[in-house]
Design a protein that fits this description.
The protein is α+β, with helices and mostly antiparallel strands. Helix content is 42%, strand content 24%.
């Protein structure tokens, strides 16, 4: 059984369409697997108390790319952050980390360079990276230590401060105990207004005056009687 020319031409046409479709599919898949700038992303995070900038590459082809990070100031490069790093992407994503003590709301430019025989990329990740509005916090400032929050100082717990009433009641006692005690005579004068022996002395003195006066008078009278006889 011979094949007609028409059937042969149809078979060739079908084979050509299939080959073209296969080539187109291979081209599309190759383009999908090729490295491009959309495979890269950047994020500013905290590693404990230290700031870092992470650049992630999800290029499934594993093409090597060079990443460089710059701090921006008024739309110009202020300085480069560390040294440039090389990353090979993966379907799950590969991350390179740049240590940077970033400030809140700072702006960084991330440059991606790929230079192979088939792929040429020299572009920035857009838009530029803007850091969070809150800086990284240290563990000391975030939570006080147990010794500072739970344990009172010895001066606060062992020696309580006396109250105002206690201090006011003890002050006069200390003052009176330190003052010198008065003499016995002074205490009698303070109590009666004069010495308690003054009346007795005055009475004895008056009696002596009377006795003396009487003796003088009696002596003079006796002398006169003797002279008259």
């Amino acid at each position: 059984m011979s094949i007609s020319r028409r059937s042969a031409r149809r078979s060739v046409r079908i084979l050509g369409v299939a080959a073209a479709s296969a080539a187109l599919a291979l081209g599309v898949s190759g383009t999908a697997l090729a490295c491009n700038i959309s495979d890269f992303s950047a994020e500013a995070t905290c590693d404990g108390a230290n700031g870092v900038i992470n650049v992630k590459d999800i290029d499934a082809s594993g093409t090597s790319a060079t990443i460089t990070v710059f701090l921006e100031n008024n739309s110009a490069d202020a300085r480069q952050v560390g040294a440039a790093k090389t990353v090979k992407g993966s379907r799950e994503g590969t991350t390179v980390t740049f240590s940077e003590d970033w400030k809140p709301n700072a702006e960084y430019r991330v440059r991606v360079v790929v230079d192979t025989a088939t792929i040429k990329i020299d572009k920035d990740i857009t838009p530029n990276l803007t850091t969070p509005s809150t800086a990284c916090k240290s563990e000391e400032s975030a939570s006080p230590s147990p010794s500072e929050s739970a344990t009172p100082s010895p001066s606060e717990s062992d020696s309580p401060t006396p109250s105002a009433s206690e201090s006011s009641s003890t002050a006069p006692a200390g003052t009176s105990s330190n003052a010198p005690s008065p003499a016995v005579g002074e205490s009698n004068l303070a109590e009666t207004g004069a010495n308690s022996n003054t009346g007795l002395i005055a009475g004895v003195a008056a009696a002596l005056v009377v006795v003396g006066g009487g003796a003088v008078w009696f002596g003079m009278r006796r002398r006169g009687a003797n002279s008259g006889s």
